[in-house]
Amino acid sequence: MEKAKYIWMNGKFVDWDNAQVHVLTHTIHYGNGIIEGTKAYKTDKGYAIFRLQDHTKRLFESAKMVLIDIPFTAKELNNAQIELIRKNNFQGDNVYIRPFAFLGYGVMGVYHKNAPVETAIAAWEWGAYLGEEGMQKGIKLKISSISRPANTSNMGKAKATANYLNSQMAKYEAIDCGYDEALLLDDQGYVAEATGAAFFIIKDGILITPPNDNSLVSITQKTVIEIAHDLGMTVKRQRISREDVYIADEAFLTGTAAEVTPVREIDARTIGKGARGSLTKQIQDTYFDIVFGRNKKYEHYLTYIN
Fold it and tell me: Diameter of the chain by CA atoms?
């Protein structure tokens, strides 16, 4: 990981190496914390954060779901992210921003409401999440033996730290088997999402993505659906079975980190022609035009940092 100069922590900017917590921090032991993933891109007007307000809103929604009271307003956290980009003097094409809130030191035991809430924001330069080659040629997906927990067992719509143990185990399994990423099914056997990204297929020119029944409501997923409508594509939100995945014409992942990553193979089945599909490329190119400020129609999603 590339270090930056500063991390915003509990209302103050501190040196990267001094942003530390106690070993008895509640979240370390019991897993209740919430995170966000936001990104700033270097446009011809300087850095711009993509859909900043939407990401901060989702952070507060996740906090409400898991009963964490963030001691700052959305406006304060938005301003902190903007100032963090300014102070760190980044130079790269894009910067990943990680706002998060967690339960701090002072209380032990499963009951968490008496634990103090800590809030922090880190940012660092980060390249293609699944590799530059994957962005061009597509990645290999493995449908995991590990499923997403049922809604009766978990809160999949919260971007909660505890949910990512499920993702970690699935990701490890996929990489250990020679794949790049895992695709998780829900408890009914239908596609939920990848370990940290939403999933799309294209079949007969129709863009299909599953409903967020027990998965994170993805901001990038919403953006891609909007792009597809503008490109004149038919979009369906419907369940996707394992068999549907295997016979897709094209497939790709979306997320703040994953951006728009093509999929060329799933469980040893070649998807389409085994390369980035033409419609996927069209969506991918449009997405990058938007985040880099080259598409005026979507400029309202950009928060410029002057």
Answer: 57
For residue 14, give both structure tokens.
């501190």
Tell me how far apart the alpha carbons of residues 262 and 234 are, in angstroms, rounded to a whole number: 19
Cα 67 to Cα 60, 107, 110: the distances in Å are 10, 16, 13
10 Å CB burial of residue 196 (0-12, 13-18, 19+) is: buried
What is the DSSP secondary-structure string of 12-66?
Answer: EEEEGGG----TT-HHHHH--EEE--EEEEEEBTEEEEETHHHHHHHHHHHHHHT
Q: What is the mean pLDDT of residues 201-214?
A: 95
pLDDT in tens, 46-78: 999 999 999 999 999 999 999 999 999 999 999
Active-site residue identified among 137, 159, 171, 236: 159
**Interhelix angle 278-291/219-230, nearest 10 degrees:** 110
Torsion angles phi and psi, residue 280, rounded to 5: -60, -45
Chain centroid to CA 77: 18
Cα–Cα distance, 20 to 95 (Å, whole number):
22
Query: Does residue 42 have an active-site annotation?
Result: no
| pLDDT value, residue 257 | 93
- The span from the CA of 184 to the CA of 149, in Å, is 10
Q: What gap in Å lies between CA 20 and CA 27, rounded to an integer?
A: 14
